[in-house]
Amino acid sequence: MNGSRARSLGLLTGIGCLAAVAAMFGAAVGVGGAYLLLRPSLAAQPAAPAAVIAPSLAPQESLPSIEANPSVAGAVDRAGPAVVTVINHLQGSGAATASGSGVIVSLEGYIVTNNHVVDGAASLEVIFADGSHAAASLVGSDAFADIAVVRVASPVPSFAAWGDSSALAPGDTVIAIGSPLGDFANTVTAGVVSAIGRSIESEPGFRMEDLIQTDAAINHGNSGGPLVNLEGEIVGINTLVVRGSGRGEGAAEGLGFAIESARARTVAEAIIARGSYPRPYLGVLWEWVTPDVAEQNGLPATYGAYLSEVTAGSPAAEAGLRAGDLLTGIDGQAFDEDHPFLNRVLEHQPGDRVTLDTLRAGSSLQIEIVLGNRPAA
């Protein structure tokens, strides 16, 4: 097929994702590179071995009481000491490193950041707000939510509490704290919630959903840092910015996006408890079909997932799916621009029985499949 590349559902690599997500969290995605994930900034840092620590779930200790009249300065006093710089010593890159941000969520040393901050790491370390360093180990990550958890063995100076992202409304004051460009640790920027519930296509066939849009200035290296409210509570994890539409208009400013705390906390707590977040698994290579792709290739559907390979023994193979099948919907819900293939599949859990609307050699089929569990990376 032309105009779209194959995406892996963890067939050959053993990752077991529903799609090859390396590109999904690349430096530039979307139309004309308009959508930019806040990729870790490149910076030389001394290597440090990662500590291996068994996760536990002891209760958090209490934080200082919230001030009677919340202010930006008060929120920073509460949350700022819990913000760290995350250093990623990249695999196979000699002394090359990348950096992002993170936030301590427990005095047991658990730190939440973005998946794309820790992707490809040979080892990890963090730099605390006071400038001290500590080796870190990866507890687990989820590429679809772009959430990862790392842990340090050494004592941590503080932690930030989770807030209620569902209570946010446009116009509410929010504060971003992180290490833009890897050189300006614990930078504070303030703004407002510009909108809630935003959806952005970050990879063909997948949209990041329920994002918080803010005009608080965030830049490369802010990835994984917290977006906090005036109480200093985490209401989001910063993940991407939009710099322009890619259609000839001028560059955009003040378009930052954060993963809502409701989603980030759910994924992070599952990773802390079990090392991963449960995701369904099919076992196919696929290409996302749009109206342009369908027209160029003479396909009989405007939106769908074209299967280029089905792995033997996978849930897809056991259900009877074949290479060349075109999936157009699930349980009677058609795929389209706002409801692409991956999002529809990710609405389900491992073990769910679903029906895939399938086109094969001019015939319409409804194929039942029991979704598998994404294999551990």
Task: Explain how this protein is built.
- The protein is mainly beta.
- Among the domains are: 107 residues, Pdz3 Domain; 110 residues, Beta Barrel (Thrombin, subunit H).
- It contains six helices and 23 strands.
- Strands 1, 17, 18, 19, 20, 21 and 22 form a seven-stranded antiparallel sheet that branches.
- The protein starts with 6 loop residues before the first strand and ends with a strand.
Average pLDDT level: 83
CATH architecture of the domain at 31-37 and 163-265: Beta Barrel
Hey, roughly how much beta strand do the residues contain? 35-45%
Per DSSP E runs of 2 or more residues, the count of β-strands stands at 23
Note the topology:
Blueprint (H helix, E strand, L loop, with lengths): L6 E2 L26 E3 L3 E2 L29 H8 L3 E8 L6 E8 L5 E4 L1 H4 L2 E7 L5 E10 L4 E6 L20 E6 L8 E17 L2 E9 L11 E3 L5 E9 L13 E5 H14 L5 E2 L2 E6 L1 H7 L6 E7 L4 H5 L6 E5 L2 E2 L6 H6 L6 E8 L2 E8 L1 E2 L4
Antiparallel strand pairs: 1-17, 2-14, 3-5, 4-5, 4-7, 5-6, 6-9, 7-8, 8-9, 10-11, 10-13, 11-12, 12-15, 13-14, 14-15, 16-23, 17-18, 18-19, 19-20, 19-21, 21-22
